[in-house]
Amino acid sequence: MSAATLPRTSPRAASRRATATEAELRGRWWRFTVLLVVTAITIVPIVAVVYLSLQPALGSAVTAPFTLENFGNVFAGTNVLLWLQNSLVVTMITVVIAVAVAAPAGYVLSRGRSKLVAGYSLLLFVIQSLPIVTAVIPLFILFARLNLVDSLTGVTIVYVGSTMSVAIWMMAAYYDSIPISLEEAGWMDGVSVFGGFVRIVLRNSLPGVLSTAIFAFLLSWNDYLIATVFLRSDYNYTLPIGVQTFFQQNSTNWGLVMAVAVVMMLPPIIVFGVLNKYFSVGGIGGSLAGK
Protein backbone atom coordinates (compact mmCIF):
# COMPACT_ATOMS: atom_id res chain seq x y z
CA MET A 1 0.00 0.00 0.00
CA SER A 2 1.43 3.36 -1.08
CA ALA A 3 1.69 6.40 1.15
CA ALA A 4 -1.02 8.11 -0.90
CA THR A 5 -3.60 5.45 0.06
CA LEU A 6 -2.86 5.42 3.83
CA PRO A 7 -5.80 6.74 5.93
CA ARG A 8 -5.15 10.18 7.30
CA THR A 9 -6.06 11.22 10.81
CA SER A 10 -7.74 14.58 10.99
CA PRO A 11 -6.35 17.12 13.46
CA ARG A 12 -9.71 17.19 15.25
CA ALA A 13 -9.72 13.41 15.81
CA ALA A 14 -6.12 13.48 17.01
CA SER A 15 -7.02 16.27 19.45
CA ARG A 16 -9.99 14.30 20.80
CA ARG A 17 -7.80 11.23 21.26
CA ALA A 18 -5.17 13.25 23.12
CA THR A 19 -7.84 14.81 25.33
CA ALA A 20 -9.30 11.39 26.16
CA THR A 21 -5.85 10.03 27.01
CA GLU A 22 -5.16 13.01 29.24
CA ALA A 23 -8.51 12.59 31.01
CA GLU A 24 -7.82 8.87 31.53
CA LEU A 25 -4.41 9.62 33.06
CA ARG A 26 -5.95 12.30 35.28
CA GLY A 27 -8.57 9.79 36.45
CA ARG A 28 -5.88 7.24 37.27
CA TRP A 29 -4.00 9.79 39.35
CA TRP A 30 -7.17 10.71 41.22
CA ARG A 31 -7.86 7.04 42.00
CA PHE A 32 -4.26 6.56 43.09
CA THR A 33 -4.48 9.61 45.38
CA VAL A 34 -7.73 8.41 46.96
CA LEU A 35 -6.32 4.93 47.54
CA LEU A 36 -3.16 6.45 49.02
CA VAL A 37 -5.15 8.59 51.45
CA VAL A 38 -7.39 5.67 52.50
CA THR A 39 -4.34 3.44 52.97
CA ALA A 40 -2.60 6.10 55.06
CA ILE A 41 -5.69 6.56 57.25
CA THR A 42 -5.76 2.79 57.81
CA ILE A 43 -2.06 2.16 58.37
CA VAL A 44 -0.97 5.25 60.32
CA PRO A 45 -2.81 4.26 63.57
CA ILE A 46 -1.28 0.78 63.39
CA VAL A 47 2.21 2.20 62.87
CA ALA A 48 1.64 4.60 65.77
CA VAL A 49 0.61 1.75 68.08
CA VAL A 50 3.69 -0.29 67.19
CA TYR A 51 5.95 2.76 67.49
CA LEU A 52 4.67 3.71 70.95
CA SER A 53 4.91 0.12 72.17
CA LEU A 54 8.64 0.11 71.33
CA GLN A 55 9.39 3.35 73.21
CA PRO A 56 11.14 3.16 76.63
CA ALA A 57 8.77 2.83 79.58
CA LEU A 58 8.03 5.69 81.97
CA GLY A 59 10.93 6.19 84.36
CA SER A 60 13.08 3.71 82.45
CA ALA A 61 16.87 3.93 82.41
CA VAL A 62 16.98 2.59 78.84
CA THR A 63 18.49 5.11 76.44
CA ALA A 64 17.93 3.20 73.20
CA PRO A 65 15.30 4.72 70.87
CA PHE A 66 13.50 1.38 70.57
CA THR A 67 13.17 -1.35 73.18
CA LEU A 68 11.01 -4.35 74.08
CA GLU A 69 10.85 -3.25 77.71
CA ASN A 70 7.09 -2.62 77.60
CA PHE A 71 6.43 -6.15 76.38
CA GLY A 72 8.64 -7.57 79.13
CA ASN A 73 6.77 -5.57 81.78
CA VAL A 74 3.40 -6.63 80.37
CA PHE A 75 4.21 -10.34 80.25
CA ALA A 76 6.00 -10.40 83.62
CA GLY A 77 3.75 -8.15 85.67
CA THR A 78 0.23 -8.74 84.34
CA ASN A 79 -2.09 -11.57 83.28
CA VAL A 80 -1.83 -10.79 79.57
CA LEU A 81 -0.81 -14.36 78.70
CA LEU A 82 -3.83 -15.71 80.60
CA TRP A 83 -6.13 -13.22 78.86
CA LEU A 84 -4.61 -14.19 75.54
CA GLN A 85 -5.27 -17.85 76.29
CA ASN A 86 -8.88 -17.10 77.26
CA SER A 87 -9.44 -15.13 74.07
CA LEU A 88 -7.95 -17.87 71.91
CA VAL A 89 -10.00 -20.61 73.57
CA VAL A 90 -13.28 -18.71 73.31
CA THR A 91 -12.60 -17.62 69.74
CA MET A 92 -11.54 -21.05 68.46
CA ILE A 93 -14.57 -22.77 69.98
CA THR A 94 -16.85 -20.10 68.50
CA VAL A 95 -15.30 -20.50 65.04
CA VAL A 96 -15.53 -24.30 65.05
CA ILE A 97 -19.16 -24.40 66.20
CA ALA A 98 -20.25 -21.54 63.93
CA VAL A 99 -18.75 -23.14 60.82
CA ALA A 100 -19.94 -26.65 61.74
CA VAL A 101 -23.54 -25.45 62.13
CA ALA A 102 -23.59 -22.81 59.40
CA ALA A 103 -22.25 -25.10 56.65
CA PRO A 104 -25.20 -27.57 56.56
CA ALA A 105 -27.75 -24.92 57.59
CA GLY A 106 -26.63 -22.66 54.75
CA TYR A 107 -26.95 -25.57 52.33
CA VAL A 108 -30.57 -26.07 53.35
CA LEU A 109 -31.20 -22.35 52.95
CA SER A 110 -29.59 -22.34 49.50
CA ARG A 111 -31.13 -25.48 48.02
CA GLY A 112 -34.45 -25.70 49.88
CA ARG A 113 -37.59 -24.44 48.14
CA SER A 114 -40.34 -25.02 50.73
CA LYS A 115 -42.41 -22.72 52.92
CA LEU A 116 -40.58 -24.03 55.96
CA VAL A 117 -37.24 -22.99 54.50
CA ALA A 118 -38.68 -19.60 53.52
CA GLY A 119 -39.89 -19.07 57.10
CA TYR A 120 -36.50 -20.17 58.40
CA SER A 121 -34.82 -17.67 56.09
CA LEU A 122 -37.14 -14.87 57.28
CA LEU A 123 -36.43 -15.76 60.92
CA LEU A 124 -32.69 -15.53 60.31
CA PHE A 125 -33.14 -12.15 58.64
CA VAL A 126 -35.10 -10.82 61.62
CA ILE A 127 -32.54 -12.13 64.10
CA GLN A 128 -29.70 -10.67 62.04
CA SER A 129 -31.34 -7.24 62.00
CA LEU A 130 -31.55 -7.05 65.81
CA PRO A 131 -28.52 -5.60 67.64
CA ILE A 132 -26.95 -7.88 70.21
CA VAL A 133 -27.42 -5.24 72.92
CA THR A 134 -31.17 -5.95 72.92
CA ALA A 135 -30.49 -9.50 74.14
CA VAL A 136 -27.72 -8.80 76.65
CA ILE A 137 -29.92 -8.07 79.69
CA PRO A 138 -32.33 -11.04 79.19
CA LEU A 139 -29.34 -13.33 78.61
CA PHE A 140 -27.62 -12.02 81.73
CA ILE A 141 -30.70 -12.78 83.85
CA LEU A 142 -30.99 -16.27 82.33
CA PHE A 143 -27.29 -17.04 82.65
CA ALA A 144 -27.26 -15.83 86.28
CA ARG A 145 -29.81 -18.52 87.10
CA LEU A 146 -27.74 -21.12 85.22
CA ASN A 147 -24.47 -20.06 86.92
CA LEU A 148 -22.96 -19.06 83.57
CA VAL A 149 -22.13 -15.46 84.50
CA ASP A 150 -18.39 -14.84 84.91
CA SER A 151 -17.76 -17.96 82.85
CA LEU A 152 -15.99 -18.42 79.53
CA THR A 153 -18.62 -21.02 78.66
CA GLY A 154 -21.40 -18.46 78.94
CA VAL A 155 -19.52 -15.92 76.82
CA THR A 156 -18.84 -18.58 74.18
CA ILE A 157 -22.54 -19.47 74.01
CA VAL A 158 -23.43 -15.81 73.40
CA TYR A 159 -20.73 -15.47 70.73
CA VAL A 160 -21.93 -18.58 68.90
CA GLY A 161 -25.53 -17.36 68.96
CA SER A 162 -24.61 -13.85 67.79
CA THR A 163 -22.55 -15.12 64.84
CA MET A 164 -24.85 -17.90 63.71
CA SER A 165 -27.43 -15.99 61.66
CA VAL A 166 -24.84 -14.04 59.63
CA ALA A 167 -22.66 -17.15 59.25
CA ILE A 168 -25.57 -19.13 57.81
CA TRP A 169 -26.38 -16.33 55.36
CA MET A 170 -22.74 -16.16 54.27
CA MET A 171 -22.57 -19.90 53.60
CA ALA A 172 -25.91 -19.86 51.76
CA ALA A 173 -24.74 -16.99 49.54
CA TYR A 174 -21.61 -18.91 48.59
CA TYR A 175 -23.54 -22.13 47.91
CA ASP A 176 -25.74 -20.15 45.52
CA SER A 177 -22.65 -19.56 43.35
CA ILE A 178 -22.06 -23.31 42.94
CA PRO A 179 -24.10 -24.79 40.05
CA ILE A 180 -26.56 -27.45 41.16
CA SER A 181 -25.61 -29.41 38.01
CA LEU A 182 -22.54 -30.63 39.88
CA GLU A 183 -24.72 -32.25 42.53
CA GLU A 184 -27.11 -33.65 39.92
CA ALA A 185 -24.19 -35.35 38.18
CA GLY A 186 -23.19 -36.89 41.49
CA TRP A 187 -26.74 -38.04 42.21
CA MET A 188 -26.85 -39.77 38.83
CA ASP A 189 -23.68 -41.62 39.84
CA GLY A 190 -25.36 -42.88 43.00
CA VAL A 191 -24.18 -40.28 45.49
CA SER A 192 -26.64 -39.47 48.27
CA VAL A 193 -27.80 -35.94 49.04
CA PHE A 194 -25.55 -35.76 52.09
CA GLY A 195 -22.69 -37.28 50.11
CA GLY A 196 -23.18 -34.70 47.37
CA PHE A 197 -23.08 -31.93 49.95
CA VAL A 198 -19.88 -33.19 51.59
CA ARG A 199 -18.00 -34.48 48.54
CA ILE A 200 -19.07 -31.88 45.95
CA VAL A 201 -20.47 -28.71 47.46
CA LEU A 202 -18.36 -28.49 50.59
CA ARG A 203 -15.16 -29.34 48.72
CA ASN A 204 -15.75 -26.38 46.40
CA SER A 205 -16.70 -24.02 49.24
CA LEU A 206 -13.35 -23.49 50.95
CA PRO A 207 -13.33 -19.70 50.36
CA GLY A 208 -16.85 -19.43 51.76
CA VAL A 209 -15.97 -21.54 54.78
CA LEU A 210 -12.87 -19.45 55.45
CA SER A 211 -14.81 -16.19 55.08
CA THR A 212 -17.37 -17.42 57.60
CA ALA A 213 -14.65 -18.59 59.96
CA ILE A 214 -12.86 -15.23 59.78
CA PHE A 215 -16.12 -13.39 60.44
CA ALA A 216 -16.77 -15.49 63.54
CA PHE A 217 -13.13 -15.08 64.59
CA LEU A 218 -13.15 -11.28 64.36
CA LEU A 219 -16.53 -10.89 66.05
CA SER A 220 -15.54 -12.94 69.10
CA TRP A 221 -11.91 -11.76 69.20
CA ASN A 222 -12.74 -8.03 69.17
CA ASP A 223 -15.88 -8.13 71.32
CA TYR A 224 -15.97 -5.79 74.29
CA LEU A 225 -19.65 -5.33 75.20
CA ILE A 226 -20.56 -8.96 75.90
CA ALA A 227 -17.34 -9.67 77.77
CA THR A 228 -17.80 -6.54 79.91
CA VAL A 229 -21.30 -7.60 80.95
CA PHE A 230 -20.67 -11.29 81.59
CA LEU A 231 -17.08 -11.46 82.90
CA ARG A 232 -16.22 -10.31 86.41
CA SER A 233 -13.02 -12.07 87.50
CA ASP A 234 -9.56 -11.06 86.38
CA TYR A 235 -8.62 -14.67 85.55
CA ASN A 236 -11.61 -14.94 83.19
CA TYR A 237 -10.93 -11.73 81.28
CA THR A 238 -10.38 -11.75 77.54
CA LEU A 239 -7.90 -9.36 75.95
CA PRO A 240 -10.36 -6.52 75.13
CA ILE A 241 -11.40 -6.42 78.80
CA GLY A 242 -7.83 -6.82 80.00
CA VAL A 243 -6.74 -3.72 78.10
CA GLN A 244 -9.07 -1.49 80.12
CA THR A 245 -7.33 -2.48 83.37
CA PHE A 246 -4.30 -0.45 82.25
CA PHE A 247 -6.30 2.79 82.21
CA GLN A 248 -6.10 4.61 85.54
CA GLN A 249 -8.19 7.56 86.69
CA ASN A 250 -5.36 10.08 86.83
CA SER A 251 -2.62 8.54 84.68
CA THR A 252 -2.14 5.87 82.04
CA ASN A 253 1.02 4.06 81.05
CA TRP A 254 0.56 4.24 77.30
CA GLY A 255 3.59 2.09 76.62
CA LEU A 256 1.95 -0.88 78.36
CA VAL A 257 -1.39 -0.18 76.67
CA MET A 258 0.21 -0.14 73.23
CA ALA A 259 2.18 -3.32 73.98
CA VAL A 260 -1.06 -5.14 74.83
CA ALA A 261 -2.67 -3.68 71.69
CA VAL A 262 0.16 -5.12 69.58
CA VAL A 263 -0.33 -8.53 71.21
CA MET A 264 -4.03 -8.29 70.42
CA MET A 265 -3.36 -7.39 66.76
CA LEU A 266 -1.02 -10.30 66.05
CA PRO A 267 -3.49 -13.25 65.90
CA PRO A 268 -5.81 -11.64 63.29
CA ILE A 269 -2.79 -10.64 61.20
CA ILE A 270 -1.40 -14.18 61.37
CA VAL A 271 -4.79 -15.69 60.48
CA PHE A 272 -5.21 -13.45 57.44
CA GLY A 273 -1.63 -14.04 56.34
CA VAL A 274 -1.93 -17.84 56.54
CA LEU A 275 -5.41 -18.17 54.99
CA ASN A 276 -5.09 -15.52 52.29
CA LYS A 277 -3.69 -17.97 49.71
CA TYR A 278 -6.77 -20.20 50.04
CA PHE A 279 -9.22 -17.51 48.91
CA SER A 280 -9.75 -18.75 45.36
CA VAL A 281 -12.80 -19.84 43.41
CA GLY A 282 -10.87 -21.51 40.60
CA GLY A 283 -11.95 -24.98 41.74
CA ILE A 284 -15.55 -24.34 40.76
CA GLY A 285 -14.65 -23.35 37.22
CA GLY A 286 -12.43 -26.40 36.92
CA SER A 287 -15.24 -28.66 38.03
CA LEU A 288 -17.38 -27.41 35.13
CA ALA A 289 -14.74 -28.07 32.47
CA GLY A 290 -15.90 -30.37 29.72
CA LYS A 291 -19.57 -30.24 30.66
From TrEMBL:
Family: Belongs to the binding-protein-dependent transport system permease family.
Top-level taxon of origin: Bacteria
Transmembrane portions of the chain: 32-54, 88-110, 122-144, 156-174, 208-231, 252-275
Entries under PROSITE patterns matching the protein: ABC_TM1
Domain ABC transmembrane type-1 stretches: 84-275
Keyword terms of this UniProt record: Cell membrane, Membrane, Transmembrane, Transmembrane helix, Transport
SUPFAM superfamilies according to UniProt: MetI-like
InterPro entries found in the cross-reference section: BP-dep_ABC_trans_perm (IPR050901), MetI-like (IPR000515), MetI-like_sf (IPR035906)
Protein location: Cell membrane
Protein name, per record: Carbohydrate ABC transporter permease
Membrane topology: Multi-pass membrane protein
Gene3D superfamilies to which the protein is assigned, alphabetical: MetI-like
Primary residence: membrane
